[in-house]
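User: Okay, second chain of the day. Same drill as before: sequence in, structure tokens out.
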Amino acid sequence: MARYMHRAENLARIIDVNETFARNARGENDWLPVLRLHRDEELFMEHYRLVDGPRVVRFYIIDNDNPNSIRQCAYNSRENARSIRHLVSLETWVQLNVFYNWILGLTSRSLRAAELSRLCGRIKESCQLHSGIVETTLYRDQIYLFYRLGQLIEVCDQTTRLVDIKYHALLPAVEDVGTPIDVAQWNALLRSASAYHGYRRVYPHEMTPTTVAGFILLDPSFPRSIRHCTDQIQHTLGLLLSRSEFGHIDFDRSHLLALDSLTDRTAEGIVAGGLNQYLDQVQVTLNALGNQISQQFFLAQHAAPAEQPANQ
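Assistant: Same drill. Structure tokens below.
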């Protein structure tokens, strides 16, 4: 439930950033990097063939054939909540239903370029409202700890994708590096990650690619940074494994150690060694950790429950 809702929020962030600031050499919006970022080129081409803004936006917001579209994320989050309906608050359940039904009502007309930024803003606000309701109503037992783990892993993964968008598409030309255009785009990236005010508290006068990427990825006090999320993942997993019902689980910490190693670097070292390669490493490690948690806590413990009817 947590991962799907945060995936929907971050997809809205990436779409909003790309629509507003990503331009190719001809000054046109370039949407191919968004597909590559999520490794969705093949699936997209099966249904659309031509890569342009309206088609990519439709693919990521309302396409039922895309398992990671915002509509499918809303559906899957709601279905996960329905399967544990007796464990989540009424407020959580009602808000998920309102959000899902609103997303279900969106059409191609709702995705017009002139309205896209406002639409993405509403999606982000709805997902943030969900997080706030869960945080203030969910009982603090193992259910909350698993929710928190899903939230942290997804936020960490999506932060890497948001930063990657800048290096793939935001800069129109090499000669623009360091110009007001470049500064404006890094400014936009910070705002898209809700990081601008935090960044300015640390760097009140400076704005360079290295300081911006370093803040978003490595600052331990920024709640969306890889370092902060990694520290919290370690802490939350420790709380889970200390519970008596999980005393029999021998949890392999190799992926956690790999994340520790990846965050124990400087921004200068990351940029010099290749930011894209670094972000790929983080994403691969997070995927492996997520699969390990599913396997050791769920799949190895219980058979999958029978599928329930979806109609309410």
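DSSP finds 15 helices and no strands in the chain.

User: Thanks, on to the next one.
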